[in-house]
Amino acid sequence: MKNTGAKTLAKKVDFNDYLSSFMKSCGTYGIVGAAAAAVIVPVLFSSILMGKKKGKKRGVPVEVGGEAGYAVCNARNPQLAQFPWEGATTIASLFEQCCEKYSGNPCLGTRKVINKDFVTGSDGRKFEKLHLGDYEWQTYGQVYQRACHFASGLVNFGHNVDTRVAIFSETRAEWQIAFQGCLRQNITVVTMYASLGEDALIHSLNETQVSTLICESKQLKKLAAIRTSLKTITNIIYFEDDESANISDLYRSTSGWNVSSFHEIELLGERAPVAPKLPSKDSVAVIMYTSGSTGLPKGVMITHGNIVAIAAAVMTIIRGLGRNDVYMAYLPLAHVLELAAESVMLSAGCAVGYGSPLTLTDASSKIMKGTKGDASVLKPTLMAAVPAILDRVRDGVLKKVEDKGGLAKKLFDFAYKRRLQAIEGSWFGAWGLERWFWDVFVFEKVRAALGGRVRLILSGGAPLSGNSQRFINICIGAPLCQGYGLTETCAGTAFTEWDDTTVGRVGPPVPCCYIKLVNWAEGGYTTSDKPMPRGEIVVGGFSVTSGYFNNPEKTDEVYKVEFMLCIRTGQLVDERGMRWFYTGDIGQFHPDGCLEIIDRKKDIVKLQHGEYISLGKVEAALMSSHFVDNLMVHADPFHSYCVALIVPARDILEKWAQEAGIEYKDFPELCDKAETVSEVRKSLSKVAKDAKLDKFEVPAKVKLVAEPWTPESGLVTAALKIKREQIKTKFKDELQKMYH
């Protein structure tokens, strides 16, 4: 069976027949005729119309306050955007106005579970399979009424509006409805990943003194196990599902908590409406706990004004965003990327259809045979994704191409090369006749796996390799816009514009903030560097959050406010009314005002002979190896080389072993074999050479780890970023052996 983990989603994408339309054309017109058309038509038109699109200024230098540095703002919006329109100063007011404006339009969609079954894998494990129906939609008007009812129901249920509510659940429509309902009573919502471990869950709930917890019924068992450690919880509200009937009555009588279903809370509010207690723009809407990649998670305080500013800014960036768009919602809403994305979509009147990574495509692990995946049914026009998913989509396509072999592979390679030349060479080639030709004859089936209508994908949460960005852009046939942001900047910092065909950059600043580079002398990065200014990335503007909850020391360390003395009043005032957040990331600005992330302060290690190695940079390069599912590079200052822990792509490694005649009894034994390690190292050396890594940046020793790294194991975050310290602790002995 396939491994689960970071590669799960992409490995489940079925690209078995994505070249069938081209091969049919070969059968109809003859292979020679089809191949001739494949070569002659695009080349002829591209030769006639080839021409570089002239560059344009996307970001421009700006004078700002704070620490000296090189600052840039969005070229189209030098005055920072704060609100999408007058009167929409909070999420509550923005949502209410949008629901009135788009009252009859589809808002939130969910697929009903028709049937479920379990199948047994070759290793004896049982896997759940779902038969899902079509999307059932609620209009904006209906969703608004449900949010109002839930807000009133919370008060009637006994929740004290001066205390906090936590949402501990997978992404679903009820999550968004509960969120909007809480905000109508100016209740701060604490968000936590559904995969959060017990220690982090206890820490988050106790630190924020949550009194009401909203969760899925399947989470009740986890909560019961830690009940005595939860100091302030008095109310539990659960989302109904198939498990509800089996356990809810038991918890009502034995838990000691006030327990109610989400539907019952709505009925309480519908029967006895309570006047809203609306927030201000400076009210804290969310305390969002970060992934905890460096220890216990920190709670970031996000205001209404932060989220509204992001919505106002991004709505000006995505071309034609509006009520005709359909957004595929499947990433964790407890992650700032998904929360910000859905806020933007709802502000623009888009339809939001909910799914999950395990039901996204026709071949996803939880999809029953004969049932369509979420994307096939929804046919979204807009999606968000994290790089780990996109990297695996690329690997999945390439694997199927290799399996096809022969003429099919040659045609794919030629088509890919022509599309790549077109995108990099001419606007017409990228979006005109040549795009149409290759989409129809080669890439159509790839696009169909995601519904066939995707017009823009946003990648965020971690750096995306240039190879993956270009590959997805070509095969899906839509702009892949890489974004850059942090929980501390409410996701929005920089965003690639739809017509920017470069790779490896994250675009200009979004129109609600400034980005400034400041010198980092220790790392050798300065704003006077040539040919481009470089330095630590500092963000200022309306998207910068209020700091860390109950952690003033850490807040003061990375959030800076420059003050000046007002002569008239003699008081200290903020010189520009904004806070500056020091990201710890290193960037450089290109001449057109686009930002490129080139390093991270915490990831830089000085080796024994004085060379500096950027762990994140090396990891991003080595991920291109088809043998790698996940990895962590480790460098010890007392040695002159680095090493790596590799989670191999199981199916690819096993296929290689079969072809090479390698005998083994199980996968861990295969990972330990010297010839296996040697083959993986050869692959790493090749991709390292292609990425122009220095010799000391190529791991001298590697250890293959058979067990995948998943959020449940605590070794990667919910956004699939590695937790470096946790991995180092777990594999302490293995790392030590590689240095001896």
Give the terminus-to-terminus CA distance: 35 Å
**Number of strand elements:** 29
> Over the alpha carbons, how many angstroms does the gyration radius reach?
26 Å
Total count of helical runs of at least 4 residues: 25
The CATH superfamily label of the largest domain reads: ANL, N-terminal domain
By CATH, the architecture of the largest domain is named 3-Layer(aba) Sandwich
Transmembrane segments: 29-49
InterPro entries: AMP-binding_CS, AMP-dep_synth/lig_dom, ANL_N_sf
Organism: Hibiscus sabdariffa
Cofactor: Mg(2+)
In short:
This protein is of the alpha/beta class and 740 residues long. It is 37% helix and 21% strand.
Describe the structure.
Helix 6 links the parallel strand 5 and strand 6. 37% of the residues lie in helices and 21% in strands. It starts with 7 loop residues before the first helix and ends with a helix. The chain has 25 helices and 29 strands. The protein is α/β, with parallel strands linked by helices. The chain has an eight-stranded mixed β-sheet with strand order 4-3-13-12-14-15-16-17, with helices on both faces. Strands 1, 2, 18, 19, 20, 23 and 24 form a seven-stranded antiparallel β-sheet that branches. The N terminus is likely disordered. Helix 5 crosses helix 10. It has four domains: 156 residues, no CATH class; 111 residues, Luciferase, domain 3 (Roll); 181 residues, Rossmann fold (3-Layer(aba) Sandwich); 132 residues, ANL, C-terminal domain (GMP Synthetase, Chain A, domain 3).
